[in-house]
């Protein structure tokens, strides 16, 4: 179970800058923004890490959340995450990375602990900087690129018009998965959200 003495660090992975805002690769930022709104917190620049951070509690007297958006580019996300984990004394088991996932169909959400990075540069950087892969992940399926499109180009392009019709609902649901992982545990979140 979680250690109530320490907050949870929820990291939305993405790239900073307006030109990336609607990219598939930035869905972690979208979920982080929504979570911050839910806990009534505003993002501000952290004094010890290259990241925007919002702090709040899940519900009255609930667990404390530190919601972070690293301001380095995706492949350097680990440095700010490690700095925040150290600053807030968050154990790896209470770090949740929210990220896009090519190996899952669009619209599907998966929660897991540890495992490989599946070629995701943000996760690779986090694992290296944290010195472990044993943190939690909420994976937001974006599906594989059509035809022969390069996966790197695909994740750095915006969601399609068809995908955008569902995007708001799915971002909301991904935030629900994060909350479930924090308040009910990974197994409960998996049993509840993996079926759909």
Automatic annotation (TrEMBL):
<dbReference type="InterPro" id="IPR001328">
    <property type="entry name" value="Pept_tRNA_hydro"/>
</dbReference>
<feature type="binding site">
    <location>
        <position position="75"/>
    </location>
    <ligand>
        <name>tRNA</name>
    </ligand>
</feature>
<feature type="site" description="Stabilizes the basic form of H active site to accept a proton">
    <location>
        <position position="100"/>
    </location>
</feature>
<dbReference type="GO" id="GO:0004045">
    <property type="term" value="F:peptidyl-tRNA hydrolase activity"/>
</dbReference>
<comment type="subunit">
    <text>Monomer.</text>
</comment>
<feature type="active site" description="Proton acceptor">
    <location>
        <position position="25"/>
    </location>
</feature>
<keyword id="KW-0694">RNA-binding</keyword>
<dbReference type="InterPro" id="IPR036416">
    <property type="entry name" value="Pept_tRNA_hydro_sf"/>
</dbReference>
<keyword id="KW-0820">tRNA-binding</keyword>
<comment type="function">
    <text>Catalyzes the release of premature peptidyl moieties from peptidyl-tRNA molecules trapped in stalled 50S ribosomal subunits, and thus maintains levels of free tRNAs and 50S ribosomes.</text>
</comment>
<feature type="binding site">
    <location>
        <position position="73"/>
    </location>
    <ligand>
        <name>tRNA</name>
    </ligand>
</feature>
<keyword id="KW-0963">Cytoplasm</keyword>
<protein>
    <recommendedName>
        <fullName>Peptidyl-tRNA hydrolase</fullName>
        <ecNumber>3.1.1.29</ecNumber>
    </recommendedName>
</protein>
<dbReference type="Pfam" id="PF01195">
    <property type="entry name" value="Pept_tRNA_hydro"/>
</dbReference>
<feature type="site" description="Discriminates between blocked and unblocked aminoacyl-tRNA">
    <location>
        <position position="15"/>
    </location>
</feature>
<feature type="binding site">
    <location>
        <position position="20"/>
    </location>
    <ligand>
        <name>tRNA</name>
    </ligand>
</feature>
<keyword id="KW-0378">Hydrolase</keyword>
<comment type="function">
    <text>Hydrolyzes ribosome-free peptidyl-tRNAs (with 1 or more amino acids incorporated), which drop off the ribosome during protein synthesis, or as a result of ribosome stalling.</text>
</comment>
<feature type="binding site">
    <location>
        <position position="121"/>
    </location>
    <ligand>
        <name>tRNA</name>
    </ligand>
</feature>
<dbReference type="InterPro" id="IPR018171">
    <property type="entry name" value="Pept_tRNA_hydro_CS"/>
</dbReference>
<comment type="similarity">
    <text>Belongs to the PTH family.</text>
</comment>
């Amino acid at each position: 179970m979680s250690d109530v003495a320490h907050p949870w660090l929820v990291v939305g992975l993405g790239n900073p800058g307006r030109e990336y805002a609607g990219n598939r690769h930035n869905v972690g930022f979208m979920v982080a923004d929504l979570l911050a709104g839910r806990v009534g917190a505003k993002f501000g620049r952290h004094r010890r890490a290259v990241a925007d951070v919002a702090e709040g509690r899940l519900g009255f007297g609930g667990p404390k959340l530190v919601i972070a958006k690293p301001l380095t580019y995706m492949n350097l996300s680990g440095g700010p995450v490690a700095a925040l984990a150290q600053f807030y004394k968050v154990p790896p088991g209470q770090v949740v990375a929210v990220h896009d996932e090519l190996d899952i169909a669009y619209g599907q959400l998966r929660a897991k602990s540890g495992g490989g990075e599946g070629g995701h540069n943000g996760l690779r950087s986090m694992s290296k900087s944290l010195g472990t892969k044993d943190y939690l992940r909420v994976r937001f399926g974006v599906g594989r690129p059509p035809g022969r499109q390069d996966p790197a180009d695909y994740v750095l392009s915006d969601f399609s018009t068809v995908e955008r019709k569902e995007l708001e609902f799915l971002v909301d649901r991904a935030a629900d998965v994060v909350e479930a992982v924090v308040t009910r545990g990974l197994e409960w979140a998996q049993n509840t959200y993996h079926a759909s």
